[in-house]
Amino acid sequence: xxxxxxxxxxxxxxxxxxxxxxxxxxxxxxxxxxxxxxxxxxxxxxxxxxxxxxxxxxxxxxxxxxxxxxxxxxxxxxxxxxxxxxxxxxxxxxxxxxxxxxxxxxxxxxxxxxxxxxxxxxxxxxxxxxxxxxxxxxxxxxxxxxxxxxxxxxxxxxxxxxxxxxxxxxxxxxxxxxxxxxxxxxxxxxxxxxxxxxxxxxxxxxxxxxxxxxxxxxxxxxxxxxxxxxxxxxxxxxxxxxxxxxxxxxxxxxxxxxxxxxxxxxxxxxxxxxxxxxxxxxxxxxxxxxxxxxxxxxxxxxxxxxxxxxxxxxxxxxxxxxxxxxxxxxxxxxxxxxxxxxxxxxxxxxxxxxxxxxxxxxxxxxxxxxxxxxxxxxxxxxxxxxxxxxxxxxxxxxxxxxxxxxxxxxxxxxxxxxxxxxxxxxxxxxxxxxxxxxxxxxxxxxxxxx
Length: 450
Fold this sequence. Notes:
By secondary structure, this protein is an alpha/beta fold. The protein contains 13 helices and 19 strands.
């Protein structure tokens, strides 16, 4: 059977979608390839959040096409995901060697389209139309980890789409409006994963805290999302629950309270703030203020003082003044994030921000990006160093990505810990004494394992 190479750009949602497509193809007898130039099918799952991600994907496909076609003229070359959704047929016009363009609501049809192309029944497939019910179509998981061992963690997609329409973001246009799966369907998928050895699930949504607002609604003072967490929490054998990415607007008191009430819900929160300036947040159409964000952090730390808090920040948004940038710097110092993903503003076509006045020069954006990143690194280094000497529980996921002779896992507050240990610890919850801290990595003392 043919071999398939898949490369993923962007968020965890894309990782999960790629995993599902891979699982579909493996179930049909395809093998996974590590080298695109030796594959019969090359799929790039694309991201449109920043221009750099789009250009990387286009450049990668152009390079592969120029070399692979001379070796295998019948190979299938395809784009999936957000860029495929937004550009559609334009991608084939730009790269004539591309045969397949699959949009964000059509991942479940990718295997059939590939089969048709390989068999010669189709020459070109562009499938980017909306499809009702697509949020519940993919449940396949490819759970093979390093050394052919089963994965102990897994992503579970609980919804599709976004209704927020932040002025800088193209996602509502590429992923469509919010559509949520049923609680019963999600619990069933999670239970199947646990039966296959998964110990930790991460619930995924573009704005995961918006889950089920329309389809399910509040009940007994609890949002649909909290109702879902409670239902997943009841699964025997599941050790940990995480979720990403939320929106500050979704952090009601019911969710804050759940951190103290549900022991399987990890004390970890990735809450994108984007800016520390109220004026900027208004231009971004974020729907909250700096003060409200700080209130959420205070409430979370009151319930779980040991909670790990990370965020996303954009620098260089149109019209960003020095004062607005400094407001973001001061917010980082006030919150003391464990880490932050700092992004340089990238113009996305057809978004309101693209037409705003005072687009900042690239040099200024680069300067502010470097300055904020340095401050984030400084704060994070202090917080990680403060963990030295503590005993922390980790779920061992497998060999360290940097040193296969060691094992690694994550604490409940989502810090990576590396330690000297063998394969027997994979999938185990172990307590380690933290002996030193590196760059956003902790190192555990293996003596405690003896």
